[in-house]
Amino acid sequence: MSALPVRRFDAIIVGAGGSGMRASLALAEAGLSVAVLSKVFPTRSHTVAAQGGIGAALGNMSEDSWLWHMYDTIKGSDWLGDQDAIEYMCRMAPKVVYELEHFGMPFDRNPDGTIYQRPFGGHMANFGEKPVQRACAAADRTGHALVHTLYQRNVRAHTQFFVEWMALDLIRDADGDVLGVVAYEMETGEVMILQAKATIFATGGAGRIFAASTNAFINTGDGLGMTARADIPLQDMEFWQFHPTGVAGAGVLITEGVRGEGGILLNCNGERFMERYAPNAKDLASRDVVSRSMDQEIKEGRGCGPHKDHVLLKLDHLGPEVILKRLPSIREIAIKFANVDPIKEPIPVVPTIHYQMGGIPTNVHGQVVAPNDGDDRAVVNGFYAVGECACVSVHGANRLGTNSLLDLVVFGRAAGEFIVGQRLDRESHKPLPKGAGEAALARLARIDGNAGGEGTAAIATDLRNSMQTHCGVYRNQALLSEGVAKVMEIEARAQRVTLSDKSRTFNTARVEALELDNLVETAKATIVSAEARRESRGAQARSDHPERDDTNWLKHSLWYRDGNRLAYKSVNMKPLSVDAFPPKARTY
Amino acid sequence: MKFRIYRYDPEKDARPYTRDYDVELAPTDRMLLDALVRLKSVDETLSFRRSCREGVCGSDAMNINGKNGLACITNLRELREPVVLKPLPGLPVIRDLVVDMSQFFKQYHSIKPYLVNETPPPEKERLQSPEDREELDGLYECILCACCSTSCPSFWWNPDKFVGPAGLLQAYRFIADSRDEAVNDRLDDLEDPYRLFRCYSIMNCVDVCPKGLNPTRAIGKIRDLLVKRAV
Fold first, then answer.
1. Average pLDDT over every residue of A222-239
2. Are the C-beta atoms of A385 and A222 separated by less than 8 Å?
3. Chain B residues with CB inside 8 Å of A512's CB?
4. Residues A514-540: pLDDT tens digits?
5. A337 touching B, CB under 8 A?
6. Given CB 3.0 to 4.6 Å as the disulfide criterion, which of A96, A260, A317, A458 pairs with A119?
7. A377-387 per-position pLDDT tens digit
């Protein structure tokens, strides 16, 4: 065994955003010893940037039903979502939202004192008939309100946080069981093994593999990289959501709640073009549909500005009162990042990478599953994943707005409760395998020992630009094949990344070099899966294969790092208690 | 663009020093954080915290030309050169622009920053009128960046005893919440010569808050409640 110090817990959670802290709350309140690791102080996790709302059929504004929510989610997913998981999430939604309210979350209120809900893209009543107000909102700061509330509740539960610790690699034994992680303390440069009976990844997304992204700097796919290096496949990584409204040039998110409150998209002729693409839902069609429509307008020369490279989001007609009350942060962002006051002028926007639908494959308990001995969904003992880094799969090929916060809380809670039910306190820790942690130490030694290569920033910039060019809104075979080759070249360069700063004290350059390994794994998984899928479904739009192909492609992709190979598994079309929703044409 | 930046790595430097940089910026570099990221691509030893780059996570608080603020929402055009960057004042420096925020969070934790309500909740949401909810506006939006507390002379002098503007703003966020049942306990806890009453209304906190919040007003409201309770 390596000489690394070891600390033992019942459970460790990597990541302290919405899903990690919902899981830790369940575990800490049940009295388990739980440690939560995070690269940043918990309230700085990227959940804090979510704006518009959390979806739940509370029916506070008009009649609503979890079954309609389920239908919208399946349709939004372009039928790639697993229907058992989607039913579970939509049925649980009201319960978890009420819980958040009971924890103290400052939701906006209706005159009768109930939680305010706003319209959002793809949220419809009666199986797609007409828009419904389902997004439970705290102004346009719902993620901020949620992550602070969960942190506060964890303070109350005495959850133990390891702040500014980065997990480097998983530890698996000869049986394939996961026994914990090797972690790096940023302040001191110390490396330690954190051993646990349950290891939960809640590491969030990896939007930083693209050049133009709404994502925070920390979203580097660390959980995905660690999982891939531990020989566990990543699922449906070709599906990346472009949010229709990122501030042009800056990438900062403008919530879909703006369109929910009545904002509209205009081209250079002042035309509300979404009426042509989605006659029923218009500006509130699903995100993939709106992003592609915007891309089409810009390509056909109807973009705005001197370079005709964006469209306009108009909301001045809502009036200052609605904007100041319901969308105050949006106004702040528009003034700061686009030099426009949306009370008077429209905001320039472009489709911007926002969310990863794929991730670490799990079941509804958050248990990580991978093919083994003929079972497509064999559990990896001791390993769980929740939130954006996981693929359960409720979002399929395209996520509905507000289902991300919901996913965090529903499955963070589900994994926590499931682990509580396992009675881990009665079990002892399995012995650590010989050489535990050596791979992570070797990675650190490689980065510190390399000489003569390039710095992290140059390599990471090339990776982001390549992904942006070769894996954008519209994809085709030639573009993707070239992209795969480029990413593989960049991987070779990343192996030789050279660090000029060897200090042990808060060395952010070393952290960025470690993150680069994870960005590379995520980018490979994404572009290799995208190249192989020869159809258009949800966020994967292939101009050379424009139709959805249910005969050949109604299946999940599984990418393995070893051999850079792909396998596939079926979509679960069997809900838990209701009739299945079979695939049909998807129009809004 | 010219920068003068506080540098200190305890492993290499006997004492802190300032280093001058002249950075060529790209036309797309709008905010101070953009310039820092560009600078780090040239000199990767420069350490600072950053994450969301849009002013909601509170990571990149620092002292910018003598005033605390967030690098990611500070427009480069508003800064005179050389731009002088220092760590947040009053907290121990770990390295360069990275400070040890333990004392700041200890004070935040000390005010019981969570809703206290022991009444069994209803099956649905607890009801709250829009007017009662409005009482939380200007309070709950705090991002815990510490710009306010580290600009407060009272917090510099007594960081262990004075809660500081950020913690007191959050204390009032729960006092003001119609759903909270611990108002009296919260007031008891703050009725102390140091915890609350070290605020001398200097109002640096209001001046620097990147979210436009007003801790001094919240502190005033807590004082009013204490007075009202006494009579």
1. 98
2. no
3. 44
4. 999 999 999 999 999 999 999 999 999
5. yes
6. A260
7. 999 999 999 99
The helix/strand/coil state of A266 is strand
From the list A113, A500, A506, the residue facing B128 with the nearest CB is A113
> What is the three-state SS of A529-547?
HHHHCCCCECCEEECCECC
Interchain CB contact of A453 with B (< 8 Å): no
B128 touches chain A (CB under 8 A): yes
Binary contact (B130, A509; C-beta < 8 A): no
* E-strand stretches of A141-190: 160-163, 165-172, 178-185
Contact between chains at A217 and B50 (C-beta distance less than 8 A): yes
pLDDT tens digits along B169-201: 999 999 999 999 999 999 999 999 999 999 999
CA–CA dist A89, A43 (Å, integer)? 24
According to the model, what pLDDT value does residue B43 have?
A: 96
In terms of phi and psi (left: phi > 0; alpha: psi -120 to 50; beta: otherwise), the region of A533 is beta
Judge: A44–B52 Cβ closer than 8 Å, yes or no.
yes
Q: How far apart are CA A159 and CA A20, in angstroms?
A: 11
Which residue from B50, B94, B105 is facing A506, i.e. has the nearest CB? B94
Indicate the residue type of A562.
D
Going along A33-155, which residue ranges are E strands?
A: 34-38, 54-55, 117-125, 130-136
Q: Is A183 on the interface with B (CB under 8 A)?
A: no
Residues of A catalogued as catalytic: 287
For A105-123, the pLDDT digits (tens) are 999 999 999 999 999 999 9
Residue reference for tokens 């009202």:
B228
Write out pLDDT tens, residues B209-221.
999 999 999 999 9
- Residue A451's CB is within 10 A of a number of other CB atoms, namely 8
Q: Say what the alpha-carbon torsion angle A550, A552, A553, A556 is, to the nearest 10 degrees.
A: 120
3-state class percentages of chain A: helix first, strand second, coil last, to nearest 5: 40, 25, 40
Question: Closest by alpha carbon to B114, among A69, A151, A233, A81?
Answer: A151
Mean of pLDDT over chain A: 97
Cα–Cα distances in Å, from B181 out to B115, B131, B177, B189, B221? 8, 18, 9, 14, 18
Residue linked to tokens 């070779």: A492
Q: What is the pTM of this model?
A: 0.97
